Amino acid sequence: MRPRVLLVEDEPDIRLIARAALARAGFEAIAVGSGGEALAAAAAGPVDLILLDWMLPDLDGPETCARLKADPATADIPVLFLTARHDAADRARCLELGALGSIAKPFDPLALGAQVRALWRPAGPERHTGER
Asked: Which CATH number belongs to the domain containing residue 93 in this structure?
Protein backbone atom coordinates (compact mmCIF):
# COMPACT_ATOMS: atom_id res chain seq x y z
CA MET A 1 0.00 0.00 0.00
CA ARG A 2 1.40 3.38 -1.00
CA PRO A 3 1.78 6.06 1.71
CA ARG A 4 -0.98 8.67 1.48
CA VAL A 5 0.05 12.33 1.40
CA LEU A 6 -2.49 15.06 1.94
CA LEU A 7 -1.31 17.95 -0.24
CA VAL A 8 -2.72 21.30 0.90
CA GLU A 9 -2.03 23.96 -1.75
CA ASP A 10 -4.33 26.74 -2.96
CA GLU A 11 -2.55 27.42 -6.27
CA PRO A 12 -3.99 24.97 -8.84
CA ASP A 13 -0.83 24.83 -10.99
CA ILE A 14 1.44 24.16 -8.01
CA ARG A 15 -1.03 21.60 -6.67
CA LEU A 16 -1.04 19.77 -10.03
CA ILE A 17 2.77 19.74 -10.29
CA ALA A 18 3.27 18.67 -6.67
CA ARG A 19 0.64 15.95 -6.89
CA ALA A 20 2.29 14.50 -10.01
CA ALA A 21 5.73 14.66 -8.37
CA LEU A 22 4.44 12.84 -5.30
CA ALA A 23 2.80 10.17 -7.44
CA ARG A 24 6.07 9.61 -9.35
CA ALA A 25 7.82 9.21 -5.98
CA GLY A 26 5.42 6.45 -4.95
CA PHE A 27 2.94 8.36 -2.83
CA GLU A 28 -0.81 8.48 -3.18
CA ALA A 29 -1.53 12.21 -3.16
CA ILE A 30 -4.87 13.64 -2.06
CA ALA A 31 -5.03 17.34 -2.91
CA VAL A 32 -7.11 20.09 -1.31
CA GLY A 33 -6.95 23.87 -1.59
CA SER A 34 -7.62 25.27 1.88
CA GLY A 35 -6.92 24.80 5.57
CA GLY A 36 -10.54 23.94 6.28
CA GLU A 37 -10.52 21.24 3.61
CA ALA A 38 -7.25 19.94 5.06
CA LEU A 39 -8.75 19.56 8.53
CA ALA A 40 -11.72 17.66 7.13
CA ALA A 41 -9.59 15.40 4.89
CA ALA A 42 -7.11 14.63 7.68
CA ALA A 43 -9.94 13.74 10.07
CA ALA A 44 -11.54 11.50 7.43
CA GLY A 45 -8.15 9.80 6.92
CA PRO A 46 -6.22 7.69 6.61
CA VAL A 47 -3.35 10.09 5.93
CA ASP A 48 0.32 9.24 6.41
CA LEU A 49 1.80 12.72 5.92
CA ILE A 50 0.54 16.25 5.28
CA LEU A 51 2.35 18.60 2.88
CA LEU A 52 0.99 21.99 3.93
CA ASP A 53 1.26 25.36 2.20
CA TRP A 54 1.94 28.28 4.55
CA MET A 55 -0.30 30.84 2.86
CA LEU A 56 -3.86 29.60 2.36
CA PRO A 57 -7.11 31.49 1.70
CA ASP A 58 -9.01 30.57 4.88
CA LEU A 59 -6.87 29.20 7.70
CA ASP A 60 -3.19 29.78 7.06
CA GLY A 61 -0.75 26.90 7.26
CA PRO A 62 0.46 27.62 10.81
CA GLU A 63 -3.11 27.78 12.15
CA THR A 64 -4.05 24.63 10.24
CA CYS A 65 -1.00 22.85 11.63
CA ALA A 66 -1.78 24.00 15.18
CA ARG A 67 -5.34 22.65 14.88
CA LEU A 68 -4.12 19.36 13.44
CA LYS A 69 -1.63 18.94 16.28
CA ALA A 70 -4.26 19.86 18.91
CA ASP A 71 -6.72 17.20 17.71
CA PRO A 72 -5.93 13.73 19.11
CA ALA A 73 -7.24 12.14 15.89
CA THR A 74 -4.69 13.97 13.73
CA ALA A 75 -1.92 14.98 16.16
CA ASP A 76 0.42 12.16 15.14
CA ILE A 77 0.26 12.78 11.39
CA PRO A 78 3.63 14.18 10.28
CA VAL A 79 3.40 17.66 8.73
CA LEU A 80 5.84 19.20 6.30
CA PHE A 81 5.41 22.79 5.17
CA LEU A 82 5.67 23.69 1.48
CA THR A 83 6.41 27.39 1.54
CA ALA A 84 7.90 30.41 -0.16
CA ARG A 85 8.81 31.73 3.30
CA HIS A 86 12.50 30.99 3.72
CA ASP A 87 13.75 33.02 6.66
CA ALA A 88 15.08 31.41 9.83
CA ALA A 89 12.16 32.60 11.97
CA ASP A 90 9.63 30.92 9.67
CA ARG A 91 11.65 27.70 9.55
CA ALA A 92 11.85 27.75 13.36
CA ARG A 93 8.10 28.35 13.62
CA CYS A 94 7.46 25.26 11.48
CA LEU A 95 9.36 23.16 13.99
CA GLU A 96 7.72 24.85 17.00
CA LEU A 97 4.31 23.96 15.53
CA GLY A 98 5.32 20.31 15.48
CA ALA A 99 6.15 20.02 11.76
CA LEU A 100 9.07 17.95 10.49
CA GLY A 101 10.37 21.00 8.64
CA SER A 102 9.76 22.77 5.36
CA ILE A 103 10.36 22.47 1.66
CA ALA A 104 11.07 25.71 -0.18
CA LYS A 105 9.07 27.07 -3.09
CA PRO A 106 9.79 27.21 -5.89
CA PHE A 107 10.68 23.54 -5.91
CA ASP A 108 12.04 21.19 -8.52
CA PRO A 109 9.31 18.59 -9.16
CA LEU A 110 11.81 15.73 -9.29
CA ALA A 111 13.42 16.82 -6.04
CA LEU A 112 10.07 17.29 -4.23
CA GLY A 113 9.27 13.57 -4.20
CA ALA A 114 12.80 12.74 -3.08
CA GLN A 115 12.66 15.34 -0.30
CA VAL A 116 9.31 14.09 0.98
CA ARG A 117 10.53 10.50 0.84
CA ALA A 118 13.73 11.42 2.72
CA LEU A 119 11.88 13.34 5.44
CA TRP A 120 8.91 11.01 5.83
CA ARG A 121 9.27 8.33 8.43
CA PRO A 122 6.31 6.07 9.12
CA ALA A 123 5.17 6.05 12.73
CA GLY A 124 4.62 2.30 12.61
CA PRO A 125 2.49 -0.37 11.01
CA GLU A 126 -0.76 1.35 12.00
CA ARG A 127 0.09 4.14 9.51
CA HIS A 128 -0.11 1.70 6.63
CA THR A 129 -3.37 0.09 7.68
CA GLY A 130 -5.27 3.34 8.08
CA GLU A 131 -5.85 2.74 11.81
CA ARG A 132 -5.53 5.54 14.29
From this structure: 3.40.50.2300
